[in-house]
Amino acid sequence: MVAPSRWPDSAWHVRNTLVYCTLACHLDKSIDYSPLHPHQNRSVDRLSGDMNGQCNQSVWTRPLTQSCFSLSQSQFADPKDNVFYRYIVPWIGKGLLTLHGPKWFQHRKLLTPGFHYGVLKPYVSLITKSTQVMLDKWEHLITQEKSVELFGHVSLMTLDSILKCAFSHESNCQIDRSNSYIKSVCEITYQINYRIWYLPYQIDFIYWLSRDGRRFQKACEIVHLQTDKVIKERKKSLKDEQELEKIQKKRHLDFLDILLCAKDEKGDGLSDEDIRAEVDTFMFGGHDTTASGISWTLYCLAMYPEHQQKCREEIRELLGDQETIQWDDLGKMPYTTMCIKESIRIFPPVPFVARQLSKPITFHDGRYLPEGTLVGINIYLIHRDPSLWKDPEVFDPMRFSPENSSQRHSHAFVPFSAGARNCIGQQFAMIEMKVAIALSLLRFEFSPNPAKIPRKIPQVVLRPHSLQEQPGTPFENLK
Ligand code: HEM
């Protein structure tokens, strides 16, 4: 294997991106393919091979688990790869997701308190309200249509929630999508996913000259202007009010308050640019992922009505006639939680992550990877690995009972990644998924539409297929 001597050039990106896209677009095929590989059951499988003898930096990992997540255990962890992540940088800039080195470490330390349970607790009622708006819409839609495509609605609901939690913004986006900020976020999300999917757009100059590239750029400008405006206004009001406790008496603390007040030991806070990057990062990381998790969980429950009914009984017993849910209830729905976990095992919202090695690593069998190697960690494959999961294709929530979980490898279930660069928003995500699933089951019974069995589309997140076929962004196609 050859380590690149310098940061890869654009030709390198094109080759590697093609390799990644091919693998990414055939998640299921890569499962069929891996047993044929001569190195099966070893720590690392090289699936990308040699393209003209030049592209041997990409490594696709299989049972691996411990070895590869330990890549990110070191204090500063390895940087993200510059293939997929570069598509989102024009939007989110250099925030937690894309930073590396000491600056990432500083941001992670400053932002961790923003996910403390005391901050997250008031979000339950905000998420509940957003969920209820979505359910009211469904109530209306099922009187008009035989079947309702859920993913787009769930995406708008999670966008609505993250806007409230990130900067207390009441967007009303589930009902009124004429707001230019919402339209732009939807456009950006769609464009990023489309760009990954559409191979000619891997080449920068083709993309930036295209109509889509220009639309993407315009949408980023609108979003940045709006984020800057909100930050400026909030900074002003925080100055007047002086302290967080005073705000907290009036309303919940949102992520923006936390970001503006975050200070390290030397008393240094984040710059305006850093704050904007983090707000946009939460917007990006915090809505498509949970929309995927909620949608696939509803799909699994629709496919397995016996589990759906068990969850519904659990929630009815817990909430009685209430239509709202409280923080304390979230810890009292073990079966529903196991169903959510089993669903995101089978359909992990983030199907793969990637890193560029900052130093060589040696595996237990003596093979090593040099510095600069691009490592793709296929979470989807890990979650379906028969050496880790008995009958991996079977939906069995009891895998997540305390007894069964304790016997499993610690890195067999990694929907939120692992190590130092694991998902900072995982508690938030679990809260949102539990609230949305619980309230949905109280109001509706779900069954699959046999004419529209969803196909898995691994883009930035693992999306259900059906909306992809229609022209326009998924949000434009919603009724
Ligand atoms: C079901 C929902 C979610 C899933 C499956 C998920 C999964 C992940 C994964 C796999 C990573 C590692 C990415 C990588 O290595 O490149 C990650 C990182 C991250 N996630 Fe999430 N995520 C979810 C929800 C959220 C939410 C709700 C937020 C914010 C409110 C969030 C914010 C982030 C951030 C900021 C990072 C970067 C952390 C760092 O590198 O220090 N995520 N997430």
UniProtKB/TrEMBL annotation:
Keyword check for Ribonucleoprotein: no
Database matches in InterPro entries: Cyt_P450, Cyt_P450_CS, Cyt_P450_E_grp-I, Cyt_P450_sf, Cytochrome_P450_Monoox
GO MF annotation, one: heme binding
Lineage, uppermost ranks: Eukaryota, Metazoa, Chordata, Craniata, Vertebrata
Native species: Chelonoidis abingdonii
Top-level taxon in the UniProt lineage: Eukaryota
Cofactors required: heme
Positions bound to heme: 423
Keyword entries, A-Z: Endoplasmic reticulum, Heme, Iron, Membrane, Metal-binding, Monooxygenase, Oxidoreductase
A single Gene Ontology CC term: endoplasmic reticulum membrane
Family: Belongs to the cytochrome P450 family.
Keyword Metal-binding: yes
Gene3D superfamilies: Cytochrome P450
PANTHER family reported for this sequence: CYTOCHROME P450 FAMILY 4, CYTOCHROME P450, FAMILY 4, SUBFAMILY B, POLYPEPTIDE 7
PROSITE patterns (UniProt xref): CYTOCHROME_P450
Record's protein name: Cytochrome P450
Subcellular location(s) of the protein: Endoplasmic reticulum membrane
Database matches in SUPFAM superfamilies: Cytochrome P450
